[in-house]
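Team,

Forwarding the record for the chain on the shared tracking sheet. I've put the sequence and predicted structure together so nobody has to dig through attachments.
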Amino acid sequence: WNAIQKRGLTKFSLRKGKRKTVKAVLKRFYRLNWGIWIRTKCGRNKKLHTKSANRKRRLRQHVFTNATQSTLLDKMVTSYWRKPKYYIDDPYEPYHQREEFSITRRKPCVPLN
């Protein structure tokens, strides 16, 4: 008995024949403008009275998905969700740029003399 994985991705809708976004991805993950997806840690709201202060602090943090997971999540959403979004008072605004990595750098690197 082998279970078959099913991600719920609709490649062709019945009405217009277009791809559809998997809504569970949008509910669980958030995409930063440089292409990585972030998520919260599981169990962050469960049985907090049994967890230490350090563990609760770690649970409040977000974690990155790896490159394979990011590629999969990009395939599960339409191009609308892959484009940068601009919100007023966005708490993730400092994390949308990644200047310290050469591939995702937008500004030219100025050497320190």
